[in-house]
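Recall the central idea of this unit: under ordinary conditions, the amino acid sequence of a chain determines the structure it adopts. In this exercise we apply that idea directly, starting from the sequence alone.
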Amino acid sequence: MKKALTWGLMVLGIILIAYYLNDLGLHNLISAAAKMPLDLSLILLAPISLYFIHAVGWSYTMSRRNRTLSGIARLTLLQGFSYGIGGVIPFQAAFSEPMKLSFLRNNIYDREDLIISLVIDNSINGIAIAAWGIGGLFYLALFMTKSTGLRITLIAIVILAIGISYAVIAIQTKGLFQKLLRFIKKIGPLAKSAEKRMKGAAAFDERMSSFYTTRRLDFFKSLVCHLLEKIHGVVEFWLIFHGLNHPISWAKCFFIFSVTSTLDNLLFFMQLGGMEAWISSLLVAMSIHQHKINITAAFFRRIRLVFWAFVAIVFWLSTRRKTTQT
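Accordingly, the structure predicted from this sequence is:
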């Protein structure tokens, strides 16, 4: 069922991309790329800063020993892999995050700590995404609408987002893994399997709760890193529009990124093709669609994702080859 859904969404995504590409015209996309070689090069290479800062943020959620053994260089490569693969397949987190662990499978690592660090890191990253989304809502309320009703709605959404972020952390400090297993136990065929894992889940929960209660400085360091890494998205949109000779303000680039980043993560099951849909639609709503610049901008973001997906696959294959030889 899962495989059928994944392949179905991939096919749907490819159909959407084909539709937008046909609407734009491949020759127009190639022509636009040829006119902005420097900007395009920066668009492709700038994500290295994103991967590095995210890696630093992730490292703060690990034990000191795992952080030292992993090294920032290796973690940066793994983040490049995660973002590359995650940008072109449905349910990216369900695939790319476990794959990161597979590259750190050596017995020298504390496996439990690595798993917990991924859960915490993704939670903190989610809070950072929510914070940027809230910033985008404030921009919309202050500068893009005069409707009192809409502003009240936006404020309500902001309060809800803050509440959800708090709840995510609160649940993790009160037995996340055990709660999940108790839920699974209610599913008849999986009850025995869940029961066998309860003891291990208790140990995981204790270590996770300990992070939030005893390592608050590391939590805030990681959060700051995840907040800072999002600046890359704003710069990316600025480079795209600058290269297309349609410069827009940094504030609008911030708003565009805050919306698309939020949708990228909320609609994680439909990143392929979906991203083109919501970027082009958002730009139309902002009256940025002359000469189909909205579709062109979406495809330049896609080009970056495809490029890093290719790099990720090469990295994965080379790593597998080395593992096989040893």
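The first helix runs from residue 2 to 24.
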